[in-house]
Amino acid sequence: MSVQPAIIDYESIFLHAPVGMCISENRIIQSCNEALAEMFGYSRAQLDGLSFLALYPTMDEFLRTGDRIIPIMNAKGRYSDERIMRRADGELFWCHVTGHAMKSSEPLGPGIWTFEDVSEKRPVTAELTPREREIAALLVEGKTSKTIARQVDLSPRTVEMHRAKLMRKFSAATSSELVHKLVGVQL
Q1: Is residue 14 situated within a structural domain?
Q2: Which residues contact 33 (CB under 8 A, 6 or more apart)?
Q3: Full residue range of the structural domain in which residue 173 is found
Q4: Does one domain contain both 149 and 171?
Q5: What is the pairing mode between strands 78-86 and 92-101?
Q6: Count of Cβ atoms closer than 10 Å to residue 107 Cβ
Q7: Where in this chain does the record put each HTH luxR-type domain (predicted)?
Q8: For residue range 49-76, what is the model confidence (pLDDT) as tens digits?
Q9: Can you give the CATH number for the domain in which 28 is found?
Q10: Residue ranges in the chain whose pLDDT is less than 70
Q11: What is the pLDDT of residues 30-53, one digit of tens each?
Q12: Best exposed site among 38, 44, 77, 142 by fewest CB in 10 Å?
């Protein structure tokens, strides 16, 4: 007597997964799960059909992140980072974002994205400009000023200036201490 394989309800798994998930196309949310809606303070119906722009602190951060994602998605078919995002009520929070392109020829075309709220481990504690948020996220990834400068199309000197401002805002004496404070590690 053979055992029939269990029928897997993929829709229920998607809707009730413990991590925020969505399917997008051209940076528009096609469908999302309950965890994503709850994390950002929207209903699922409000998010479906909404541009990812609504989840970013500013239009500039939305555009620059899209520009940064394209070459990485073209090379790897997936993308991952930690960045500051915005809830429906305007609260800013750190979020780990991972995406996978469903068509390798369309890096921002159909894709699957996951979002994890990491604000408990990494609270947003200082008022940062959009550029400071971008540089802070890249510093947390362990990137050097020279690498950051190439990635965001700035001079290394300008990146160093932003790092110095971040160090003042976070009362950090060294770059290492700044990174620890950005990730929420108390020294």
Answers
A1: no
A2: 14, 15, 16, 17, 20, 21, 22, 44
A3: 130-182
A4: yes
A5: antiparallel
A6: 21
A7: 121-186
A8: 999 999 999 998 999 899 889 999 999 9
A9: 3.30.450.20
A10: 1, 123, 125-126, 183-187
A11: 999 999 999 999 999 999 999 999
A12: 142
Facing residues of 97 across strands? Answer: 81, 115
Are residues 110 and 149 located together in one domain of the fold?
Answer: no
**Residue 98 sits in the same domain as residue 64:** yes
Residue 125: its pLDDT value, please? 65
Same domain, 30 and 77: yes
Task: Assess whether 108 and 139 both reside in one domain.
Answer: no
Task: Burial-class residue 9 by CB neighbours within 10 Å (0-12, 13-18, 19+).
Answer: exposed
The residue assigned the tokens 């950090």 is 172
Residue 29, strand partner residues: 24
Tokens standing for 174?
């060294």
Query: How many whole angstroms from its chain centre is CA 4?
Result: 41
Q: CB of 131 within 8 A of CB of 108?
A: no
Distance, CA of 164 to CA of 65 (rounded, Å): 22
In sign, the C-alpha dihedral spanning 24, 109, 112, 89 is negative
- Three-class SS state of 55: helix
